């Protein structure tokens, strides 16, 4: 049984998988379709974004110099895995390859839960002097608490270590330093770049 199949298939599945449009070769498409049906595999990108959702992953120049684009790098998966997936992306990776990287995150039901990390504040928060001062104060306080733990471990090696350090500077506290009138979606002068 195949649960996930991914890679460079070197064949398009449909006419709109190429630009300029071109009908794909019948034999390889029929063989691929038979394999997908036998293993109940779906093209994740097409399922999520529709048949017309352009996701060209390969580009080259024709003999006449025009550019050709095609959707030949794909991820196929079973429906239950598709329902437990997110972050489907096509990423340009530079000179490493002539293909775009196709990726997705799969989080099956049995995936162990990892404890939430610290909440974060958007980077633009540090533009505010009050937030800068608070961040410096919290960093100094955290450094002092860590030094205490180290001294305790060195002076009392037989005692259980104290690892509980609380940084009293949370994202919520930092965000409270933002002046009134700045909204979560579009701070003045920042446009969409600072959205949080």
From TrEMBL:
<protein>
    <submittedName>
        <fullName>Uncharacterized protein</fullName>
    </submittedName>
</protein>
<dbReference type="InterPro" id="IPR036691">
    <property type="entry name" value="Endo/exonu/phosph_ase_sf"/>
</dbReference>
């Amino acid at each position: 049984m195949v649960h996930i199949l991914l890679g460079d298939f070197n064949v398009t599945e449909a006419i709109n998988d190429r630009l300029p449009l071109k009908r794909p070769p019948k034999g390889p498409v029929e063989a691929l379709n038979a394999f997908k049906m036998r293993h109940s595999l779906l093209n994740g990108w097409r399922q999520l974004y529709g048949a017309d959702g352009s996701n060209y992953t390969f580009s080259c120049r024709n003999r006449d110099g025009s550019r050709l684009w095609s959707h030949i790098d794909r991820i196929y998966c079973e429906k239950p895995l598709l329902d437990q997936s997110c972050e489907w992306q096509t990423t340009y990776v530079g000179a490493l390859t002539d293909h775009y990287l196709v990726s997705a995150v799969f989080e099956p039901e049995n995936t162990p839960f990892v404890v939430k990390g610290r909440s974060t504040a958007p980077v633009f928060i540090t533009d505010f002097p009050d937030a800068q001062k608070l961040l410096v104060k919290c960093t100094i306080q955290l450094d002092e608490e860590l030094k205490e733990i180290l001294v305790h471990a060195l002076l009392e090696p037989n005692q259980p270590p104290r690892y509980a350090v609380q940084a009293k500077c949370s994202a919520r506290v930092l965000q409270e330093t933002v002046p009134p009138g700045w909204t979560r979606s579009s701070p003045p002068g920042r446009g969409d770049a600072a959205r949080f």
